[in-house]
Amino acid sequence: MLPDREKLEDALDYLAKTDRSHALLFAAKDVQKERIKLVRAEKFLSATGSVAERNATADSSIEVAEAITEWENAVADFKLLENTRSRMNTVIEVWRSLNKQGRTL
Fold this sequence. Notes:
The longest helix has 42 residues. It is built from 3 helices and no strands. By secondary structure, it is mainly α. It is rod-shaped, with a radius of gyration of 22 Å. Helix content is 86%, strand content 0%. The protein has one domain.
């Protein structure tokens, strides 16, 4: 379906309204990735045994698994918003192309 002026306005409005969320989700995914390292390091330092045993304890901790899940969710939320924003940009570009050709609807 070709975009009309209403779809163009909806796309522009969506992009404007999601600028902040996009930036926050972009940062959140990076912060969550760093959090995994911090949680793992904390678990490693509090574990006992050889280095291999401490690594195993840290890597298999519930807290590290939860941090990984939070990171995965942050990445998924970011990609979903990024994909939707990309689709809105496509709507705008198609509208521009049609408008340039004098075929606006």
